[in-house]
Design a protein that fits this description.
alpha/beta, FAD/NAD(P)-binding domain, 8-stranded mixed beta sheet
Length: 329
Amino acid sequence: MRIAIVGGGFAGLATSYHLLEKDRSLQIKLFEKNRIGAGASGAAAGLLHGYVGNLEQPHWKEYEGIQFAKKLLKLAAQAIGKDTYIANGVVRCIMHQKEIQTFKKICQNDPSVFWWEEKYTASRIGIAKPSIFISEGFSVYSDIYLQGLWLLCQRNGAELVSKDFGPEDYAYFDIVIFCCGAELPKLYPNLKLVLKRGEVLLCEKQLKYGIIGNGYFSLSADPNLCYIGSTSRENLEEISLEEATNLILSKTNVWFRTNTKILGYKSGIRVHRSSGILYPMIGQLDHKIWCFTALGSRGLMYHGYLGAMLARAVLHQKPELIPNELGIY
């Protein structure tokens, strides 16, 4: 079977890997015009844990998602011969008093999450706010991880095609899977997707933990550098380093003022459902075309789990294997 996967980010690579794990005889070509991780995945926050966004309710399949992601992170590290993450934990600071009861309840229910009083948080990270310490949180080195994940796919037989997937390519393939994020709304406007651009800054600063507040700080593979982010803009135009710096530091300096040298930034366009629903979107668009998109800011959490789910549905040609929550609607 000949399968085209369009997009070399988290979704496309995870789907490629799981397809080939299930059937090494598949002929998979990965279409990526620029480079692996050139889009939003390459500009990802790099923080992997189960306590993102609103914590009033647990996230859908967060445990399964994180376990699949951890497995792929370890396999990618073995493939590339470099660390793809550091498991030092993540600190999430309380930004509003109304969050306190929710955060304390999490600590009571999850033995891997610890309550830090304001003074203790200040002694550990220099921020005078109460917080929770997510001991099993990871800081992921997204660029290295994406390259390692591609090596896994390549060793299993995937081929890279360094061009856009065009109309002339459709006839050759038995299955086409669009994991191309920002390009998909142009191809299928009826999917009702919206795009937002985000930036993260690379700066000189040593951190022991990933930190989340109004924005975030994540560790990099270089212990002397970290990332600060992120923006989320409906204006998709590129901005300058100075503009990106002003946007991001205007958020983070309110709760964590830090004098640091800004070295550069990364930018990418994320895809979201226009309805505001946070579930990713997986589905069959016609007899040979599938899509895997709308991961939004949860790409690290869900890409491995959903890539395996999609691989199974594609190989059995059974879209009903995809849960209704993820459907195209």
